[in-house]
Amino acid sequence: MPAHSLAISDDVVVALPPTPHRGLQDWIDEVAARAQPDRVVWCDGTDAEWDLLSEQMIETGTLVRLNPRLRRNSFYARSSASDVARVESRTFICSEHEADAGPTNNWVDPKDMRRQFAELFEGCMRGRTMYVVPFCMGPMGSKQSVIGVEITDSPYVVLSMRIMTRIGTPVLEILGGDGFFVRCVHSVGMPLALGEADVAWPCNDEKWIAHFPETREIWSYGSGYGGNALLGKKCLALRIASVMARDEGWLAEHMLIIKITNPEGRSHFIAAAFPSACGKTNLAMIQPTLPGWQVETVGDDIAWMRFGTDGRLYAVNPEAGFFGVAPGTGPATNRNAIQTLTENCIFTNTALTAEGDVWWEGLTDQPPSGLTDWTGVAWDSGSGKPAAHPNARFTVPAAQCPSIASEWDAPQGVPISALLFGGRRATAVPLAIEAFDWDHGVYLAANMASEGTAAAEGEVGKLRRDPFAMLPFCGYNLSDYLAHWCRIGAAAENDSRILPKIFLVNWFRKDTNGRFLWPGYEENARVLRWVIERVESGGEAIETAIGRLPTPDAIGMSDLNLLPGVAEALLSVDNEVWIDEARRNRAYLNDFGDRVPALDHQQDLLEQRLHLA
Ligand code: SAT
Ligand code: MN
């Protein structure tokens, strides 16, 4: 029994709450009374706790300790084959009014959802330990940060939360006796009968991930995986935080944050939104080959942004770790990530080597022999099946990244000079576009689309609209979200605040044979250089109907060994294609009704520029 637990009878052990917060204590008691765990443990976030839990999980088979000579203090987990990604079809926004969830979210009446969860939770933690994980999203003690408490019966979630957020007793100290916290409740949904042996990856075929925006609560059942179970991440830092941001006039976005320093030593920070598994982590850790240019990492997935007293937009990374896609990450594509992954990591659904290390497609050119694949069987390289699941992930503390910026956990955040948006577009969208102004940038971001990836269930490769890369993560009506962005711009103009410039980028253009036109990866720094030059009022651009495009010289196209015609294809606007694109944009924006007049106006302007109207 942990030292901070108290036995009240032979079979119920309840922890002594290490907090004077009555609201928190009562809520813990309430959930425990319903879920009926064998014991309640308040997580303190210490190394001793990490060691204890990892040892226990090695015993139950959930974790494998990796060879410490190769990766110190690191572990491997294999999930159930049905629990490998976010489940958007089972994710719900339970606002009081259906209209507030909007046309793009699943909605269930909160009263019905509460009833549903009350049933699901009846005894759902029997035979298990209920962990209480106090966590802080954002730098400790920052005015921008938000405290949450996650109740979970998954020790895998506890360890992952320790990497991805700031957890434990220091958070309770900040919370004090009556501070606000977001209530997050999670269960794998697999109670154990007396004496029943556990499985390596407990979960349930029935999954529910529910958000209650008005009361800022999250309930999750049935999955142990990433965004479904680490409730501080997509659920709190995006879905609930986007609602808080709407109510309080700030922005909670699916964006990486980087610091770029030019050869003259001047630094700028930019934030960039791309859908899941479109290279945010790679861009966040990019090592530019351009002489004299340096890029450092502030965050790779989420940005919270508010205006500071100096009128600039400041961003913090609410997370403390990276939950990155492993396949495709290698010394050539992301050396910084590889150098980050040397210790204190958890790997999920990669392959395992005979030496007790991890492997995935793209880590090395040749797979080592003797691999065990992510399903736990000896891998046959001739099978045509990948050894690692395409959405296999690493979980690693941000602080150990060699490219981490010194400002990465500054309580005041970093001032943002430019915002980038991008998706996977095989056609139409050029390498880079600078928006004419804020509303035009919002229009470009609102019409973003991307080909599906393995990060969510659904068809890989199918084009779907993903405004602001927020489609799966906006906790309220997407048209209100777009209006919120327009309002931020309008208010800033009135208050003479300094708005970042907005850009749309596309690393994923293909030729008719399906080959990528743009080399991508470290060469993306050429686009970053142009962005910074534009921010500093330099950088050549040509005005087109869809925005300002870089000249081939501004990108340095002639330094790249591109095939004839490729530079032109990447940096031109095909009017016919864009007339089509504009028509589809109009139809898409119509889905949002007349709630966003500023975007309707932008649509009219685009049609005029294309001589469509
Ligand atoms: O599983 S997560 O939602 O955390 C990762 C992602 O899809 O971006
Ligand atoms: Mn993401």
From TrEMBL:
Its EC number is 4.1.1.32. HAMAP family: PEPCK_GTP (MF_00452). One of its GO terms (biological process) is propionate catabolic process. PANTHER family: PHOSPHOENOLPYRUVATE CARBOXYKINASE, PHOSPHOENOLPYRUVATE CARBOXYKINASE [GTP]-RELATED. It is found in: Cytoplasm. CDD domains: PEPCK_GTP. Its cofactor is Mn(2+). It is an enzyme of class 4 (lyase). Substrate binds at residues 86, 225-227, 276, 391-393. GO terms for cellular component: cytosol. It catalyses: oxaloacetate + GTP = phosphoenolpyruvate + GDP + CO2. Catalyzes the conversion of oxaloacetate (OAA) to phosphoenolpyruvate (PEP), the rate-limiting step in the metabolic pathway that produces glucose from lactate and other precursors derived from the citric acid cycle. NCBIfam families: PRK04210.1. Coiled coil: none annotated. One of its GO terms (molecular function) is manganese ion binding. Monomer. The active site is at residue 278. GTP binds at residues 277-282, 393, 424, 521-524. It comes from Lichenicola cladoniae. Mn(2+) binds at residues 234, 254, 301. This is Phosphoenolpyruvate carboxykinase [GTP]. Residues 250-598 form the Phosphoenolpyruvate carboxykinase C-terminal P-loop domain.
